[in-house]
Amino acid sequence: xxxxxxxxxxxxxxxxxxxxxxxxxxxxxxxxxxxxxxxxxxxxxxxxxxxxxxxxxxxxxxxxxxxxxxxxxxxxxxxxxxxxxxxxxxxxxxxxxxxxxxxxxxxxxxxxxxxxxxxxxxxxxxxxxxxxxxxxxxxxxxxxxxxxxxxxxxxxxxxxxxxxxxxxxxxxxxxxxxxxxxxxxxxxxxxxxxxxxxxxxxxxxxxxxxxxxxxxxxxxxxxxxxxxxxxxxxxxxxxxxxxxxxxxxxxxxxxxxxxxxxxxx
Length: 265
Description:
Blueprint (H helix, E strand, L loop, with lengths): L1 E10 L10 E8 L4 E5 L6 H8 L7 E10 L2 E2 L5 H7 L4 E4 L3 H4 L6 H11 L5 H14 L5 H5 L8 H13 L5 E5 L7 H18 L2 E5 L3 H7 L2 E6 L2 E7 H6 L4 H8 L3 E2 L2 E2 L2
Parallel strand pairs: 3-8, 3-9, 6-7, 7-8
Antiparallel strand pairs: 1-2, 1-4, 4-5, 9-10, 11-12
Helix pairs in contact: 4-5, 5-7
């Protein structure tokens, strides 16, 4: 489904002069698999998934390597090619979805435009589909949310709007950058459950960036531990949690809080 081969990414004008933000990253993800990228801030996790969806900032560039989706190399795709791919076959949940929303347009106007851009839906059909997705995200009074401007919503509500949009077309590959970080614990559990349901119902492949080892442990088939732009260790969930080879991985696991003497990862 997804093949990343020896990916390196540099930041800075003219290709950058410092060490790469991602250095020699390789990963193979099969259809329906859930893989989590874990590690401290600045380890290159988000840069990897932004590379996969062609959403690196202008200051960054892929210096080497290939990214293949279903056998097609997308690392050199044009804007028009990305426009056809994103939102349907490939979608992403951003860490702060509120930033991705236009502050001077209502949520409904943006959601309807998004749906109509990627389908043949009429305006009313797109509205109904958007409302249905918001209901799935447990947003009360979704019609009111649709008529609201982003600044009228809480951070958690905006995050759920972004997740709703990303999941609308049941993408083959869903990339998620800290998808539950802005949500309360109850809503986190709901979102995790819905992502798992997507995998079970549609065979969705999920690559997720998270600092939450507990979420990664619960969801993932495999985990990739990153440090300083490189893969420190990767393996099945059981390998990483029960038989870590790297001292860095052990340090991450030891940092998971304990409640009543019990550790939940």
